[in-house]
Amino acid sequence: MSYQIREMIIEDYGNIIAMFQETPGISVREADSREATEIYLQRNPGLSFVAVANGNIVGCVMSGHDGRRGYLQHLVVKSEFRKLGIGTNLYKACLDALQKLGLYKTHLFVQATNHAGESFWQKQGWVLREEVHMYSFNTSKNLNI
Q1: What's the pLDDT at 50?
Q2: What is the separation of C-alpha 81 from the centre of its chain, rounded to a whole number of angstroms?
Q3: Exposure winner among 64, 86, 100, 118, fewest CB in 10 A?
Q4: C-alpha distances in angstroms, 41 versus 10, 14, 54?
Q5: pLDDT band at 24, cuts 50/70/90?
Q6: Full-model pTM
Q7: CA 75/CA 59 separation, integer angstroms
Q8: How far, CA to CA in Å, does 96 sit from each of 11, 89, 124, 136?
Q9: Domain definitions of the chain by residue range
């Protein structure tokens, strides 16, 4: 099966959000709105990618950085296109782009209930960091941020 990886553009949003919504283990929040996604892409140009097969988006990944570390978010491949290397090639496109910016360490977050995601990342050689805990603080009354 042939596919291409290209940079994500905001016009891909409808297809991408549909994939998020139909993928177990992916939470869709207001931070995933079209407006927020457009801002994210503008702040992190050339760091998010989609996989396209037969003119349709079949996978995506978003990445960005804080100037010191890269961060991967929302690696999603449609179920019927899994086990073809698409996910691996998507995240490696991010790592290559981050490395060109001088960022050599990248983090990602996986929901504890997303066992398929955890399995994928472990098979790819990513290391579960048990010595750190993630804390969040929400300054909004909206809990779905």
Answers
A1: 98
A2: 16
A3: 100
A4: 8, 15, 24
A5: confident
A6: 0.91
A7: 7
A8: 23, 10, 15, 29
A9: 4-123
Token representation of residue 87: 């996910």
CATH topology of domain 4-123: Aminopeptidase (3.40.630)
Q: In the block, which residue shows the tokens 């399995």? A: 119
* Residue type present at position 140: S
| Order of all β-strands in the sheet with 70-77 | 4-7, 49-53, 56-65, 70-77, 106-108
Q: Which two tokens stand for residue 73?
A: 């978010």
Mean of pLDDT values over 65-87? 96
- CA pair distance 114, 25, nearest whole angstrom: 5
Give 61's strand partners: 49
pLDDT level of residue 1 (50, 70, 90 thresholds): confident
C-alpha distance across the termini of the chain, in Å: 37
Tell the burial category of 66 from Cβ atoms under 10 Å away from its Cβ (0-12, 13-18, 19+): exposed
**Residue with the larger pLDDT of the pair 28 and 144:** 28
